[in-house]
Amino acid sequence: MLLTELAKSCRALSCRVEENAPMAHFTSFKIGGPADLLVTAPDAKAAGEVLALCRERELPVLFLGNGTNMLVSDEGVRGVVLRLAGDTTAELACRDGVISCPAGLPLKVLCRFARDNGLAGLEFAYGIPGTVGGAVFMNAGAYGGQIADVLCSARALYPDGSVREVALPEMKLGYRRSVFMEEKAVVVSAVVRLTPDDPQAVTARMEEFLRRRREKQPLEYPSAGSFFKRPEGYFAGALIEESGLKGFTVGGAQVSEKHAGFVINRGGATCADVRSLASRVQEKVLRDHGVELEPEVRFIG
Ligand SMILES: Cc1cc2nc3c(=O)[nH]c(=O)nc-3n(C[C@H](O)[C@H](O)[C@H](O)COP(=O)(O)OP(=O)(O)OC[C@H]3O[C@@H](n4cnc5c(N)ncnc54)[C@H](O)[C@@H]3O)c2cc1C
User: Fold this and answer.
1) How far is CA 230 from the centre of its chain?
2) Which residues pair with 119 in a beta bridge?
3) Are residues 210 and 227 in the same domain?
4) Is 57 noted as a catalytic residue in this protein?
5) pLDDT tens digits for range 93-151
6) Does 176 participate in catalysis according to the annotation?
7) Are residues 255 and 291 in the same domain?
């Protein structure tokens, strides 16, 4: 009843609402049971209003970007899963290399916009399959770059309903870490500052990073990217490989043969398969190397 009434209020705010939405359809791992209510807000204002409605009803809210760094439980998610529409045709404006972008925008759209405007700085991010908001929340990075290198500020919605412009130093961005994790804030937009460069040179660097991804990563299978964080002084993939776990399988989940840092869904993997595989990998690596592997992927539910 509570959810039916909430669904109606969300629709009145021009949100798209889906009841019992299978999270497997909304995550790159293709794993996860149903979300009671999946609400796609057209913009930050509507998202703020949905959050307020959930707060009044004391309903839990999970914020979803593009679902590329998540492992959702087989039981699904109770309450509301909220996301911002990822309008790929959003009007992006650039002034002196400074671009303001909505959080729901796919990162690759921002990368292409930068490239087409002869701006350097986001090449590392080309090929990271998330949204701009997800990249800020996770401080996404690759090939020696990270979003923190180009970010100026972000606008965030807080659980108490306030909206704040947050400057870079306040975001406490670290390795796959941001202050938004502790504050449970939703990033609704971000401002990046890029550097003018020859468009051909920018394109060449992007293509090179993409080539390396295709060569090294099992992109033909559903996954959530690197499953574990890089432990200081090591590479998770190398430790897992040295422990003889390449190809190690539990149900439909497998340590990729191509890149041991990736856990892939070979078909029909459940969250329970992945969790069981991940803990066995952690145990063996700890036994063999004395290193504790910490998941980078966010466990939901
Ligand atoms: C093939 C593959 C390759 C990858 N390569 C890389 C890589 O090179 N480097 C890298 O860093 N990551 C990589 N990833 C992981 C992932 O793409 C990044 O972490 C990305 O930033 C997640 O963005 P998302 O929008 O998909 O977030 P989601 O997976 O939807 O969410 C991840 C977390 O962020 C939160 N979140 C999402 N959006 C917001 C928001 N607007 N406000 C507040 N919280 C939010 C969610 O609640 C969740 O806790 C890869 C993943 C895949 C599948």
Assistant:
1) 17
2) 196
3) no
4) no
5) 899 999 999 999 999 999 999 999 999 999 999 999 999 999 999 999 999 999 999 99
6) yes
7) yes
Is 226 a residue of the active site?
yes
- Residues 83, 155, 176, 205: which is the catalytic one? 176
- For residue 69, the ligand 1 atom closest to its alpha carbon is 29
Of 206, 211, 219, residue with least CA distance to 28? 219
Looking at the 3D structure of the chain, how many domains does it have? 3
**168, 197, 214 — which closes off a domain?**
214
Whether residues 198 and 111 share a domain: the answer is yes
Q: Ligand 1 mean position to 136 CA, how many Å? A: 9
Q: Tell me if 187 CB under 6 Å of ligand 1.
A: yes
Check if 104 has its Cβ closer than 6 Å to any atom of ligand 1.
no
Assess whether 132 and 189 both reside in one domain. yes
* Domain end marker among 183, 214, 245: 214
Q: Average of pLDDT values for 203-216?
A: 97
Does ligand 1 lie within 6 Å of residue 179's CB atom?
no
Degrees to nearest 5, angle at CA 158 with 153 and 163: 55
Residues 206, 184 share a domain:
yes
Q: What confidence tens digit (pLDDT) does each residue in 177-195 have?
A: 999 999 999 999 999 999 9
> For residue 17, what are the domain limits?
2-84
Residue 89 is predicted with a pLDDT of: 66
Are residues 36 and 19 in contact, defined by beta-carbon separation less than 8 angstroms? Answer: yes
Tokens, residue 153? 């500020």
